[in-house]
């Protein structure tokens, strides 16, 4: 399918000042931005920037950023699922994954995560996709936030709901390995019934057939 990307932006007023949330951002623009030193949830800032530049260059890759002047303080990524994950087994060209979302500690609690998701869904092209995210408690910053797994899970669910993602049941072993883990998804308005049924089969690949 053709991957259309239409730029959108939102200016968010926070207690720290105004933050511009925009995207999808091109790989060239990302290269010219500075990544805040506290963007370290997944890898060092420079390595994270390199990874996002690569994702932005992919036909389906989408990067939405939150920035103060030229400094990125948060981002969200959308890309096809990892080939080693079950979600790629259906080879669905209209299923993409919210792969990572990160906001530096200084700007947490300011609605930036929700803003990143809202701007992501402003693009009408998102109505052509099933968007999934897999949430695992071992990726959560429990120490930095002081929240327990259930409190953090509630925060994550609220943030994802701002982008229209809802909880979906699955028998995926990694998600089922802890009750706080979860699968969330948003099914676009133009996704056909056949794709929805294929997604259902991916969610329950271990279901016994009689």
Automatic annotation (TrEMBL):
EC top class, as a word: transferase
InterPro entries, per the entry: AcuA, Acyl_CoA_acyltransferase, GNAT_dom
EC code(s) of this entry: 2.3.1.-
SUPFAM superfamilies hit by this protein: Acyl-CoA N-acyltransferases (Nat) (SSF55729)
Residues of the N-acetyltransferase domain: 23-189
Residues spanning the signal sequence: none
One matching Pfam family: Acetyltransf_1
Listed GO MF terms: acyltransferase activity
Keyword Acyltransferase: yes
Keywords linked to the UniProt accession: Acyltransferase, Transferase
Protein name according to UniProt: Acetoin utilization protein AcuA
